[in-house]
From TrEMBL:
Residues 78-117 form the 4Fe-4S His(Cys)3-ligated-type domain. CDD domains: fer2. It holds the Pfam family Fe_hyd_SSU. It comes from the Bacteria. This is 2Fe-2S iron-sulfur cluster binding domain-containing protein. Its cofactor is [4Fe-4S] cluster.
Length: 575
C-alpha cells in the first residue's frame, strides 16, 4: 500500500495505482483527453498534468504511479497554466466547425475548452491533416478533427484485434491512418465502429443515411417500414438525457410512428425466427454429422472478421441470415404478399446499434429474388438526430406498442442484444423442443455476463450436454479462432461470437459515453440490465412460443429449415 498526499489530503491506495485513479477515489477530477481506462493510458495529450512537490517537471497523472510520501497538486497555478497552453495548442490545429459537427455538445475537447476556460487561441497558422476518408459504407474518418490521442488506434488494436489504424509521419505531419494512406474501405476494417464510440471528438463518425430515410418517407409511392434491433431500446433514451439502463421501447415505437413510418416493426420478431432456424440447424448438424462447432452468424462485424482473417472457418458459420435481414427478407416476401405490396415499392429501414449493419445491408448475399432484404440502416444515434430534427418531444411521448405480427416478440429475442443472449435464447428453445415440455428454469446464468470468453456446458436434455463458447470483441474472437485452429475446441458444439465488446449494447452505433464516465460505469453491463429486465417482464420468453412466429410457419414458411425458409432466410458467405 502507498500513502501520499493529494491537494493536502492524505490517501492510501494499492501499489501501482496511478495519480489519476487515486484522485478519482478522493473525488478529485483531473481532466483527460487521450486517456481511456485500461485501453489507452499513454500520457500523450498532457491534459492530466499535475504538480509533484519538489519535482521540476509536471507529470501526466494517467501514467504516473503514486509513491510513498509524495505530495500531489492537481490544481496549482502552474498546472492550470500548462493545461491551458496545451489545450490551446491542440485547438490551434483542430478544425473547429463546432456548430455543424456531429459531436457538438458531446465532444470531450469542446467540454474541456469550456471547463478549463480557454477563450482564445493565440497560435494560428498551418493546419495538419487534410484527408476526409468517406469510402467505407460505415465509417467516415476526418483528419482535420483528429487530435492524435490514439484512442481509436488502441481500441482497434487491443480490444478488437484488428489493428488497421496506426500512427504515421513525424511531428507536425503525424497522422493516425490505415496503412499506406489507404481508405478504411480498402484495409481489413470490420466496420464495427468501436473507433467512433471511443473517439473524443468528431474525427470518426458513422456514414450518415439520415437523408436516405427522409427521402423514402417523403416518397408517396413507397411503403416505408422500420425495424429496430434489440439493443437500441437499451440506449436510445441516453440521447435524451435518460439514465443508462433505462429501457425506452415504448417511447421509441411512438417516436418512429411520429416520424411517419408506415409500420413500426421489431427486429426482435426476426430474432425469434432466427432461433427457430438456427436451433433446428444446430440440431440437424448434431444429428447428421454437419460441421461443428456451429458458430453464430448474426454480427456483421464478426462475419467480416472471419472472412478477412479466418476464412477457413466460414463453413462453421450458421447459414442463418441475421435477424435484421430475416425480418427484411420476410417483409419483402411474406408481408408484401399478404398486403398486396410490390416489394419494389417497399423500403425497409433498420435502426441498429451497429455501424457494420450499414455494410451488411448492401451485401449481395443478402437479397431474395433481386430485392435487398433491407434497404437502409441507421444507427441509434442517427435515429435520435432524426427525432430531434423532426422536433418530436421525446419526453412527452406516450409509451406505444409495435405494430402487430412483425412487432411481436419474446424475451428470448430481447436478450440478443447482450453477449450470451443468442446462445441463451437458442438453448431455451432447444431444451423445450428436445424434452417436449415447457421448461420453467430458463435463466441460464452461465452464459451471461461480460467476461470476454465464456465456456459452459449446458445440459439440454438428460442425455445431451452441449458444450458452448461465447466471446465478444475482436481480440477475444481472435483467441477463440486460434483455439479452434489448434484443435482445442473439438469438443465444443456451439459458439456465439459478437464483434463488439459486450455485444450489441455496446455497438459502434450506440450513444457515445465519455472516457470520464467510462471510468465509473461498465456500459456493457448497465445496458444489458435493461434487456434482461425487459426479458424478465415479458409474458412469453421463448422464441418458439411467439404466437406470431407459430403463425408465420403455419401460413408461410411451413417448418424450420424448410425449402422456403432456406430460400428466404439463409445464405452462404463465400469470400
Ligand atoms: Fe444485434 Fe442482432 S442482436 S446483431 O447484436 O443476432 O446490431 O441489438 O440487431 O440482426 O436481433 C446488432 C443488436 C441485432 C441482428 C438481432 C442478432
Amino acid at each position: 500500500e502507498i500513502t501520499f498526499k493529494i491537494n493536502g489530503q492524505e490517501i492510501t491506495v494499492p501499489e501501482g495505482t496511478t495519480i489519476l485513479e487515486a484522485a478519482r477515489m478522493k473525488n478529485i477530477d483531473i481532466p483527460t483527453l487521450c486517456y481511456l481506462k485500461g485501453i489507452n493510458e499513454i500520457g500523450a495529450c498532457r491534459m492530466c498534468l499535475v504538480e509533484i512537490a519538489g519535482a521540476r517537471a509536471l507529470q501526466a497523472a494517467c501514467v504516473y504511479p503514486v509513491a510513498n510520501g509524495i505530495e500531489v497538486l492537481t490544481n496549482s497555478p502552474k498546472v492550470q497554466k500548462a493545461r491551458k497552453v496545451n489545450l490551446s495548442l491542440i485547438l490551434s490545429d483542430h478544425n473547429r466547425e463546432c456548430t455543424t459537427c456531429v459531436r457538438s455538445e458531446n465532444c470531450e475537447l469542446q467540454a474541456l475548452s469550456k471547463e478549463l476556460d480557454v477563450s482564445d487561441i493565440p497560435y494560428q497558422g498551418a493546419k495538419s491533416g487534410h484527408t476526409i476518408d468517406d469510402m467505407s459504407t460505415s465509417i467516415v474518418r476526418d483528419e482535420t478533427k483528429c487530435i492524435l490521442c490514439k484512442r481509436c488506434q488502441s481500441v482497434c488494436n487491443q480490444v478488437q484485434g484488428v489493428g488497421v489504424l496506426g500512427a504515421v509521419g513525424r511531428g507536425f505531419n503525424s497522422q493516425v491512418q490505415p496503412v499506406f494512406g489507404r481508405s478504411l474501405a480498402e484495409v481489413g476494417c470490420i466496420n464495427c465502429g468501436q473507433c467512433i464510440i471511443n473517439c473524443p471528438v468528431g474525427a470518426l463518425k458513422e456514414k450518415s443515411n439520415i437523408q436516405d430515410v427522409w427521402d423514402a418517407l417523403n416518397d408517396p409511392t413507397k411503403t416505408v417500414i422500420v425495424e429496430t434491433a434489440p439493443a437500441v431500446r437499451a440506449a436510445l433514451g441516453e440521447e435524451f438525457g435518460h439514465k443508462m439502463g433505462e429501457p425506452c421501447t415504448g417511447k421509441m415505437a411512438a417516436a418512429l410512428r411520429r416520424l411517419g413510418f408506415d409500420k413500426v416493426f421489431d427486429t426482435d420478431f426476426g430474432a425469434d425466427v432466427t432461433i427457430m432456424e438456427e436451433g433446428y440447424e444446430l440440431l440437424g448438424r448434431l444429428q447428421n454429422g454437419g460441421v461443428l462447432p456451429m458458430i453464430t452468424s448474426c454480427s456483421p462485424g464478426w462475419i467480416k472478421f472471419v472472412e478477412t482473417y479466418y476464412p477457413q472457418f466460414i463453413p462453421n458459420l450458421s447459414s442463418c441470415k441475421s435477424p435484421q435481414n430475416m425480418t427484411g427478407a420476410l417483409l419483402k416476401s411474406h408481408y408484401a404478399q399478404m398486403n398486396n405490396i410490390d416489394p419494389k415499392d417497399m423500403v425497409v429501414v433498420s435502426v441498429m446499434p451497429c455501424t457494420a449493419k450499414k455494410y451488411e445491408v448492401q451485401r449481395e448475399e443478402l437479397a431474395v429474388d433481386g430485392n435487398q432484404d433491407v434497404d437502409i440502416s441507421i444507427t441509434t444515434r442517427e435515429l435520435a438526430r432524426m427525432i430531434k430534427a423532426a422536433r418530436i418531444m421525446y419526453d412527452r411521448l406516450p409509451d406505444e406498442d409495435f405494430d402487430p405480427y412483425y412487432g411481436d416478440s419474446t424475451g428470448a429475442a430481447v436478450i440478443f442484444g447482450a453477449t450470451g443472449g443468442v446462445m441463451e435464447a437458442a438453448v431455451r428453445t432447444l431444451a423445450d423442443v428436445l424434452n417436449k415440455k415447457d421448461i420453467k428454469e430458463i435463466d441460464y446464468e452461465a452464459v451471461r455476463g461480460v467476461e470476454g470468453i465464456k465456456r459452459a456446458t449446458v445440459d439440454v436434455t438428460p442425455d445431451l450436454a452441449v458444450k458452448v463458447v461465447i466471446a465478444h470483441g475482436g481480440a477475444n474472437l481472435k483467441t477463440v479462432m486460434e483455439q479452434l485452429k489448434a484443435g482445442e475446441l473439438n469438443d465444443v458444439q456451439f459458439i456465439e461470437l459478437m464483434g463488439c465488446p459486450g455485444g450489441c449494447v455496446n455497438g459502434g452505433g450506440q450513444p457515445i459515453v465519455s472516457a470520464k464516465d467510462k471510468m465509473d460505469i461498465d456500459i456493457r453491463a448497465e445496458r444489458a440490465k435493461a434487456l434482461y429486465t425487459e426479458d424478465a417482464n415479458k409474458g412469453i420468453r421463448k422464441s418458439h412460443q411467439n404466437p406470431s412466429v407459430v403463425r408465420l410457419y403455419d401460413e408461410f414458411l411451413e417448418e424450420p429449415n424448410s425449402h422456403k425458409a432456406h430460400h428466404i432466410l439463409h445464405t452462404t458467405y463465400s469470400k
